[in-house]
């Protein structure tokens, strides 16, 4: 059913479960895994000109670290890539270029904490991807929210 799975990562805690799910699916279907991290050119362009080169380097270093974490969990055979551009667009283009069957992404990334259900990148990927997209939420947040609700109810 799945021959190639692309997992998008920005290194955030909320993506960890998405990586686990992508690796599990790939193992179950004996699929190849491609991990992708995108350096957001909008973030760079919004910074002061004198900081752009430094910010780009920092974001590339962060992307490499995020991919290193995925590589450590996946073992040998995983393909990794860093792209620069608008994250949702780059994720979809990468999926096309690798002839992927599935994109796996977290529901919230580094900038998604203020979104109600889906982060803006995840939402755009879901709307524009040429293939199925599996969004994976971070369960710890749900457990924390339920615990807080239970504590309020007990008070």
UniProtKB/TrEMBL annotation:
Domain UspA: 1-137
InterPro entries membership: Rossmann-like_a/b/a_fold, Universal_stress_UspA, UspA
Origin superkingdom: Archaea
Pfam family name, one: Usp
Family as reported in the entry's similarity comment: Belongs to the universal stress protein A family.
The protein's name in its UniProt record: Universal stress protein
Organism: Saliphagus infecundisoli
């Amino acid at each position: 059913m799945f021959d190639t799975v692309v997992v998008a990562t920005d290194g955030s805690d909320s993506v960890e479960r998405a990586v686990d799910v992508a690796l599990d699916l790939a193992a179950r279907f004996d699929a190849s895994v491609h991990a992708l991290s995108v350096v957001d050119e909008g973030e760079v362009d919004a910074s002061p000109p004198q900081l752009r080169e430094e910010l780009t380097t920092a974001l590339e270093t962060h992307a490499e670290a995020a991919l290193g974490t995925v590589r450590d969990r996946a073992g040998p055979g995983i393909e990794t890539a860093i792209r620069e551009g608008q994250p949702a667009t780059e994720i979809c283009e990468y999926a096309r270029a690798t002839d992927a069957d599935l994109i796996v992404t977290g529901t919230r990334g580094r900038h998604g904490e203020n979104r109600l259900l889906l982060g803006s990148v995840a939402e755009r990927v879901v709307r524009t991807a040429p293939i199925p997209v599996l969004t994976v939420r971070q369960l710890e947040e749900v457990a924390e929210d339920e615990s807080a609700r239970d504590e309020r109810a007990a008070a």
